[in-house]
Amino acid sequence: MNQFVVVANRLPVDAGPGGLVSALQPIARSSGGAWVGWTGNPDERPEPFEHEGVHIQPVELTGEDVDHYYEGQSNSTIWPLFHDAVEPPVHRRAWRVAYEAVNRRFAEATASVAAEGATVWVHDYQLLLVPGMLRRARPDLRIGFFLHIPFPPVELFMQLPRRTEFVRGLLGADLVGFQQPLAAQNFMRLTTQLLGLHPQGERVAYEGRTVTARAFPISIDVAEIEGLAADPEVQRDAAQLRKDLGGDRRLLLLGVDRLDYTKGIDQRIEAYGELLADGTISNDEAVLVQVATPSRMRVAQYQQLRERVEREVGRINGEFGDVGRVPLHYLFQSRTRAELVALYLAADIMLVTPLRDGMNLVAKEYVAARRDEGGALVLSEFTGAASELDDAFLVNPYDVDDLKRGIVAAIATGPEELTARMRRMRERVRAHDVDRWARDFLDVLG
Ligand code: ADQ
What pTM was estimated for this model as a whole? Predict the structure, then answer.
């Protein structure tokens, strides 16, 4: 039995070192903890095992669960709805049924490994019903929930079929964490609208308990990124990338994202194409490198995005490229963290322009990597990161003219001011890394 249990859609094995895993793994290890999640492969349920000092409790998903719970309700209903409906959410009864069944499976697996009075931390939009289910089965537990994506405005949330059950699900937690204060406020307003509750600031009384909703902006493993950025081999790779991709060109612009319609990749590429077309930027002086990790490729909207982006890349390179020199390198690939840091070091201008993003860790990774205080960040105001990184060149990604203005402003700004901006952004990120985020959340959860 475990005193601390992390519950997330995915297990911390084979997932590659990500911020969440590196933040929670040490806490889970030192507190004799467990992690409940899916391996990522359908129809597979290995026996529980130990991994780096943490008890791993796998939850099985059938192929149909992957279709309905994961790609359906999670990624085709909740994901788009919670991101301002930038793509139309799809609603299907069978997906909701599967989502509830899988959430119940997660809650039961958690109840079976949590010690009396244990602390349980549930993560993200795939598991919105788990806190409520767990509360009913195990009223002795201390339950925290953190939402990694935005929480939508009340009017949008109201479109969600069985919306009240999702609110009740979250209210099963003692502490509900969001990326931004506005998200916590949206949630509190819904408790009034749907359940007639009376929140007082961050707290609301519900079924004889007090539930707290508050913002805990997530961050990155700063030491890991800084370590890679200081590695001479990574620095050599950065110089080589600069030569291979840029040649003698003065400016290297970079985008790094999962290929997702929330990330504003097509708008960014469109803006770059217009800058080439109107002669503001020329293929002789600048190059854009866009790395896009394949993601959710079985979902139709993601296939369509891929086609749109690839068509536009082809058009721009066809129109503005030369033999042996193209203005846009598009890499539909995942990269190791060392390779990403080398790219961050090689980039004069980092373009992070999502239409909506809970936080956006790429922006923080870029800042952390720039120990040299070089580089410039063009950042969408619709990311959580924008509240902390207001020394970036902030843009409205829906407005191609504003995107172009932001890019041009970053290019035109002198090195002294760029250094001053980067220094302030680095101070912020270094003082708020992912360890601090996890400790803050767990301290409040108590
Ligand atoms: P994501 O939507 O996945 O995360 P983000 O915060 O940018 O977005 O994190 C992506 C991670 O994947 C970063 O660590 C990045 O380095 C990595 N990555 C991106 N492209 C890659 C590539 N080509 N190769 C290898 N790695 C790549 C969700 C929410 C965000 C929130 C995070 C954490 O959507 O808003 O910031 O969770 O809460």
Answer: 0.97
